[in-house]
């Protein structure tokens, strides 16, 4: 193909994404340096770094960063470990495997708002929830999940949603694994564990990199689950960066501070992306 | 036990555990579905009722109160619309990167993915203001624009890895036979990659359908898709579980059933070039 045609084919995507990146980002940078509160229109003077100072000294700032990273790492570990285990479990044929697979991947199709509502009410409610009923039946005091373990509850909901995605990708990857190699290893006396450890895990290195990469993109921006279930509370216990900024912008109408917060989110995402690309980038076919 | 018996026993154990885990993971969805046919009293009874006389009242109440069909239509239009537009823009880009890569192809791809790393909250305010000033707030067109741009990087990446794995020999053969680049794309590559393109589209539709951040913040009533409709049930109706379940079931059923039918297709395409 000629160079010019190549450029022409790529142009729409590149231009659109460039605009999508640069226009809002430069507006955010601009807003972050002026006083901009929707409750006090017309007083948009330049304030330098004051918005940043204001955002950083917000009592929710450090908890939000901590919660964002905890949420990211916990969900990544849970989904990758369980995802590998479960997809290895259903790799060989057994009775009703296709139904099992459908059941396993279903949570991925449930929207985050519904996910949070089901878990918050029907599962985790301390009086009428299924969990409460189970612990009562077993003779324990029911746990008030959302107040006592707010971040843990959010981690549970988000993992439930993303585990199926990991399973989907790993199941696909396992299908392409060389069965002859496994059989040969078994002939030579390798146990199932050996085969899993020395053949399957290395085979999954790339898919794991892919899952980590894609999930990170979505997990850094978790919003709806928190919005619907805990509302960031109690206190700041389940507030992540996305939710803190939302709070600042739409509930306190302070666009300036929210924009400063937005830039923090961008910087944090870039730091994570930097480590991520160094850690898993070499495993990606780019 | 003979070796054969041993193997059968192992399969049985594996099957048992797989079913157990699958049922556990599926339970919340099952429970939501069941609860939507209960009365409000049955919904919060302890111990939970499993056998009861199903009622359809909740569904009619939901339709009456929040016009389910309108929101469902919004979801369908925005997710399919955005996916089709993103594919039209993304296929040529992925195609040219996969078949005539330059030194910078890798950088461009990583840059595209990095735009996806930009957290939505970071640009929420400017987008909100741009939308407000251009009359795009609470409009389907506005959501389609956002969804298209939001999914474009992932779509390009998936397509790129799919195109890259196509056997090069076929292309060379076509070129030898005098195929022009246009023929090559329309008659050779696209037919071969229907699988990859459709699974990319499927994933994109699912992601759009379930997108909540932008739809919660940029729509109010007219263009609100199902995700936003459900959020309106979160606080005041929090304790009316039967109605809540009915609304949730209605919101998820189309995409879950769609997903079930397409899951084979989805499984085949979700390699992201990760499988060699």
Tell me briefly what this model is.
The complex is a heterodimer of chains A (286) and B (276). Chain A is mostly helical and 286 residues long. Chain A is built from 14 helices and no strands.
Can you characterise this structure?
- The complex is a heterodimer of chains A (286) and B (276).
- Chain A is an all-alpha fold.
- Chain A has one domain: Orthogonal Bundle (MetI-like fold), CATH 1.10.3720.10.
- Chain A is 71% helix and 0% strand.
- Chain A has helices at 3-31, 50-56, 61-89, 97-105, 112-123, 130-137, 145-148, 150-175, 179-187, 192-203, 205-219, 224-228, 241-251, 255-280.
- The mean pLDDT of chain A is 84.
- The mean pLDDT of chain B is 84.
- Chain B has a domain at 85-269: Orthogonal Bundle (MetI-like fold), CATH 1.10.3720.
- Chain B has helices at 3-35, 40-43, 57-66, 68-99, 105-117, 120-133, 140-164, 168-176, 181-192, 194-209, 213-218, 226-231, 241-269.
- Chain B is flat, with a radius of gyration of 24 Å.
- Chain B starts with a helix and ends in a 7-residue tail after the last helix.
- With 276 residues, chain B is an all-alpha fold.
- The chains are: A mainly alpha (286), B mainly alpha (276).
- Chains A and B meet through helix 1, helix 4, helix 5, helix 6 and helix 8 of A and helix 1, helix 4, helix 5, helix 6 and helix 7 of B.
What key attributes describe this structure?
heterodimer, A: mainly alpha, MetI-like fold, B: mainly alpha
The CATH topology of chain A is given as MetI-like fold
The CATH superfamily title of the domain at 85-269 in chain B: MetI-like
Structural class of chain A: mainly alpha
Tell me the β content of chain B. Answer: under 5%
Transmembrane segments (chain A): 9-31, 64-90, 102-119, 154-174, 207-230, 250-277
InterPro entries (chain A): MetI-like, MetI-like_sf
Protein name (chain A): Sugar ABC transporter permease
Family (chain A): Belongs to the binding-protein-dependent transport system permease family.
């Amino acid at each position: 193909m000629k160079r010019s045609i190549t450029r022409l084919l790529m142009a729409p995507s590149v231009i659109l994404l460039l605009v999508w990146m640069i226009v809002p980002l430069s507006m955010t940078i601009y807003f972050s340096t002026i006083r901009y509160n929707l409750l006090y229109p017309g007083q948009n003077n330049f304030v330098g770094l004051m918005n940043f100072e204001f955002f950083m000294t917000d009592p929710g700032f450090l908890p939000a960063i901590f919660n964002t990273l905890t949420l990211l790492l916990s969900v990544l570990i849970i989904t990758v470990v369980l995802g590998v285990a479960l997809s290895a479990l259903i790799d060989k044929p057994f009775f009703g495997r296709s139904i099992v697979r459908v059941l396993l991947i279903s949570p991925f199709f449930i929207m985050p708002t519904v996910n949070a509502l089901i878990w918050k009410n029907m599962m985790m409610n301390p009086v009428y929830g299924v969990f409460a009923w189970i612990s009562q039946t077993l003779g324990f005091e029911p746990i008030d999940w959302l107040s006592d373990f707010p971040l843990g509850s959010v981690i549970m909901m988000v993992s439930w949603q993303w585990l199926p995605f990991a399973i989907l990708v790993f199941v696909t990857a396992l299908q392409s694994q060389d069965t002859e190699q496994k059989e040969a290893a078994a002939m030579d006396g390798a146990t199932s564990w050996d085969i899993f450890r020395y053949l399957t895990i290395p085979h999954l290195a790339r898919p794991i990199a892919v899952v980590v990469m894609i999930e990170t993109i979505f997990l850094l921006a978790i919003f709806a689950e928190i919005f619907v279930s805990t509302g960031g509370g109690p206190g700041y216990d389940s507030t992540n960066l996305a939710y803190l900024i939302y709070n600042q912008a739409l509930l306190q109408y302070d666009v300036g501070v929210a924009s400063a917060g937005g830039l923090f989110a961008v910087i944090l995402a870039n730091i994570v992306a930097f480590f991520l690309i160094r850690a898993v980038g070499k495993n990606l076919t780019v | 036990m003979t070796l054969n018996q041993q193997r059968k026993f192992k399969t049985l154990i594996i099957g048992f555990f797989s079913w157990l885990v699958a049922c556990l993971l599926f339970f919340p969805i099952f429970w939501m579905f069941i609860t939507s046919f209960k009365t409000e009293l049955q919904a919060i009874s302890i111990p939970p009722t499993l056998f009861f006389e199903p009622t359809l009242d909740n569904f009619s109440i939901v339709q009456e109160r929040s016009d389910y069909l309108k929101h469902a239509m919004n979801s369908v239009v925005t997710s399919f619309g955005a996916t089709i537009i993103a594919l039209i823009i993304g296929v040529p880009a992925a195609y040219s990167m996969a078949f005539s890569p330059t030194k910078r192809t890798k950088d461009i791809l990583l840059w595209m993915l990095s735009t996806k790393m930009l957290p939505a909250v970071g640009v929420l305010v400017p987008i909100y203001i741009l939308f407000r000033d251009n009359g795009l707030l609470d409009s389907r067109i506005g959501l389609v624009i956002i969804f298209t741009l939001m999914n474009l990087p992932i779509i390009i990446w998936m397509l790129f890895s799919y195109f890259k794995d196509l056997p090069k020999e076929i292309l060379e053969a076509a070129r030898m036979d005098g195929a022009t680049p246009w023929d090559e794309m329309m008659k050779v590559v696209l037919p071969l990659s229907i699988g990859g393109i459709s699974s990319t589209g499927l994933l994109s539709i699912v992601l759009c359908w379930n997108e909540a951040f932008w739809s919660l913040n940029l729509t109010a009533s007219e263009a609100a898709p199902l995700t936003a409709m459900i959020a309106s049930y979160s606080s005041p109706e929090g304790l009316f579980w039967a109605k809540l379940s009915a609304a949730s079931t209605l919101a998820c059923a189309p995409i879950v059933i769609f997903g079930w039918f397409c899951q084979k297709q989805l499984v085949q395409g979700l390699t992201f070039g990760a499988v060699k």
